[in-house]
């Protein structure tokens, strides 16, 4: 460590903490920051995972029970994080979350829980390897996504 750093440890601390913010700023999802950005990214990632299975359902890529199980597991793990990503009143731009989330918090949480359960069921069904049953459960999982979006997310797309 240089002499300078030892004499001005607080300056070093300031520089380090300023830098800690930078990757977050550079990777900003549009203009989203903080927890809004985090949950948008979590949702987007789940969207990608669903899309992969959706391509199988449409016959655009070959069915793979293993891939479905893997994506379902990721969605299950993500759904367990939803609750913590919606602290009360976290509505800064460009969020599409609706204030009604916190008026109907129990309902919101039960939909997050339902997502976790449907994803877990998809994992179990995929292990058995039957394409039709697996894709039927995939549809149920997808309905849970849109069920929550219908009530709790702004409609602008
Ligand atoms: C418990 C409610 C809930 C469930 C379940 C849910 N979402 Fe969301 N989702 C939201 C809310 C609320 C937003 C808006 C978040 C924001 O803009 O701050 C959102 C936003 C999104 C977005 C847009 C993200 C962006 O970049 O703007 C995508 C994509 C998405 N969800 C996909 C999914 C998928 C796929 C599933 C199911 C696997 C799912 N969601 C399940 C509540 C939910």
TrEMBL record:
Gene Ontology terms: biological process: electron transport chain
Taxonomic superkingdom: Bacteria
GO CC list: periplasmic space
Pfam families recorded: Cytochrom_C_2
Keyword Transport among record annotations: yes
Keyword Electron transport: yes
Post-translational modification: Binds 1 heme group per subunit.
Residues making up the signal peptide according to the UniProt record: none
GO MF term list: electron transfer activity; heme binding; iron ion binding
Keywords associated with the record: Electron transport, Heme, Iron, Metal-binding, Transport
Binding site residues for heme c: 145, 148-149
InterPro entries named in the record: Cyt_c/b562, Cyt_c_II, Cyt_c_prime
Protein name: Cytochrome c
The organism of origin for this protein: Sedimenticola thiotaurini
């Amino acid at each position: 460590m240089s002499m300078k750093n030892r004499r001005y440890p607080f300056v070093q601390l300031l520089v380090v903490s300023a830098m800690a913010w930078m990757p977050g700023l550079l990777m900003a999802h549009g203009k989203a920051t903080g927890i809004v950005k985090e949950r948008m990214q979590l949702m987007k990632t789940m969207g990608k995972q669903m899309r992969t299975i959706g391509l199988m359902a449409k016959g655009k890529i070959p069915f793979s029970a293993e891939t479905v199980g893997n994506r379902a597991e990721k969605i299950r793990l993500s759904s367990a994080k939803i609750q913590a990503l919606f602290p009360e009143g976290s509505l800064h731009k460009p969020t599409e979350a609706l204030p009604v989330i916190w008026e109907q918090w129990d309902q919101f949480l039960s939909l997050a829980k339902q997502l976790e359960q449907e994803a877990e069921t998809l994992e179990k069904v995929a292990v058995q390897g039957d394409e039709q049953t697996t894709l039927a459960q995939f549809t149920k999982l997808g309905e849970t996504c849109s069920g929550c979006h219908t009530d709790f997310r702004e409609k602008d797309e």
